[in-house]
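Quality-control log, excerpt.
Job 1 of 2 completed; input and output follow.
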Amino acid sequence: MIEIVRGDITTLQVDAIVNAANERMLGGGGVDGAIHRAAGRELYDACLAVPEVRPGVRCPTGQSRITPGFNLAARYVIHTVGPIWGGGQDGEPGLLASCYRTALELARQHRARSIAFPAISCGVYGYPLEAAAAIAVRETRARQTEFDQIVLVAFDGEVHRALNRSIRSDRSGRSDRSDRSARSRSSERSNGGNEENENDSNVPNGSNGSND
């Protein structure tokens, strides 16, 4: 189940919360600073112990790392580094999608059954809200059956509204694709399953839709 809430991610009673970190993983502003303050000094030390992949980079953009949650209600903090918006021509959509995918995979590997995400890259990194919300919904929806609860946390009303619009759009799109698929199957049956019937070329491909 995917839930959208407006509030403080540091207080949520979930197995893992996701931190919108920077590549150094040593704290910063916004949700990153709030999580470090709530978790305590131990989180900083745990992040410092994460090996650098190159000087000053413990977690490259689009990837994720995991640490304990220490003083947080959550057992784990999954640190992910979102892209800085530069107009969309530098792979930003793929990098943002990778943040959600790698965070969800780390949560699954550590047997987390519930996870909460902030609006990654939507603060000072400047990612357009509607586009970022659509990616968040798409990527979490793709793996929602692997978790008991996925929470998308909005830090303000504007983000909350964008996430809700994306959820509604995703549901509408799925319903529409389901209806088309059902009509197509009915048409196939009425034509006796003839593989050469012209309607076969119009059967919707299940891979089409919001994932493109």
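Job 2 of 2 completed; input and output follow.
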Amino acid sequence: MESKKSLLPVKSDFVFKLIFGDQRNVDILGAFLSSVLDIPKDEYERITIINPHLKKESKDDKYGILDVKLHTKNGSIVHIEIQLKVLTNLKPRIVYSLSKLITEQISSGEDWGIIKRTISIVITDEVFIVTGDKYHHQFRYRTKDGIDFTDLVEINTLDLSKLPKNDDSTDLWYWMKFIKSDNEEEIDMLAEKSPQMKKAVGILKELSADERNRMLYESRFMAEIDLNSRVSDEKKKWQKVVAEKDATIAEKEIALAEKDAEIAKYEAEIAKLKLS
């Protein structure tokens, strides 16, 4: 008898997008967004996913870029991405991506008033915001005492590694648990929390039972490992080059020091002869 297949990890960007980035599942996406953001509920009455397909940055990119971009009912733009690892310069990259989403909204001669609220949601599997133990942070343009300059720009960070073991009775905790957990029993318990969560669990099980999806997931997983290996190999190669150059420099410095010592000795002997 064929053994039961394990569930695919929701925190994989590939699986996450299949669940939350499908226009047929906007009710799931709306429930998740409602747990993260403090925008009016009617914004989720009509969600349009902007990028329903995987895109590649180059022809050599085997696994492409998987994120979710959407418009809410009133035109707000929300960008969601998962970063399992907190990479160097992730913060400036997030700011750049968010800024680009803003500038893309307006052309020369248009009124500034057309700019819609732009929100970024970044989910990480490693500690991103080091300070404190909160797993959700909201960042806006505001003063230290909490006075908002504008809500047009917002960054939300969701840290899976900081999610407490026991629920805090918020919808966000349940969605974070769904994204983080690989335990089918825990996933089944979450299905009881809401109709949208039940639907999400059902979709996850369907995706996990589909051999093609498993192959695509494994392909992306292996491609990412290959890329990381190439980056690691390049890093080691350059570290070796730098080490060899450092060793050469050190040898030259020793040789120069020895010559300086010889010159100093010679000058000392000359000085003695002059005094005699």
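Post-run check on job 2. Strands lie at 48-49, 68-71, 77-83, 118-124, 136-142, 148-159.
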